[in-house]
């Protein structure tokens, strides 16, 4: 059982490495996300309606992995599933790199 889990993890890591993300490419792909995962102050626009996680500054592989999990249906949030379904592996990698590079002093995304 443990061995299975380990093999699955290795498989996942190998797969994730095939696609190299680019923060620059990601900048043009996050316009979909900014409405909810607002970047400048890391707060959602509708904090009373949704509890939206902060994704700026998180690990790129974690972000891409979460998006893949929504796409595959392993994570269930309906809006995130619909959005992730429209993203390619390359998009997810780019978006992961983009968000990972964000800090509180990052300039606002001009495409916002
Ligand atoms: C309509 C609002 C909305 C939009 C648009 C949206 N998200 Fe989300 N996102 C959410 C909510 C709400 C959650 C928490 C869902 C859950 O609990 O599974 C979430 C969760 C996530 C997570 C998981 C975070 C974690 O800590 O586990 C990632 C990664 C993410 N979104 C990335 C994106 C990206 C990238 C885009 C654009 C392509 C995007 N989201 C667009 C509302 C949104």
UniProtKB/TrEMBL annotation:
Gene3D superfamilies: Cytochrome c-like domain
Keywords carried by this UniProt record: Electron transport, Heme, Iron, Metal-binding, Signal, Transport
Domain of life: Bacteria
UniProt cross-references to PROSITE patterns, sorted A to Z: CYTC (PS51007)
Residues spanning the signal sequence: 1-16
Keyword Magnesium found: no
InterPro entries in alphabetical order: Cyt_c-like_dom, Cyt_c-like_dom_sf, Cytochrome_c_Oxidase_Subunit
Limits of the Cytochrome c domain: 21-103
Recorded GO MF terms: electron transfer activity; heme binding; metal ion binding
Entry protein name: Cytochrome C
Species of the source: Polynucleobacter arcticus
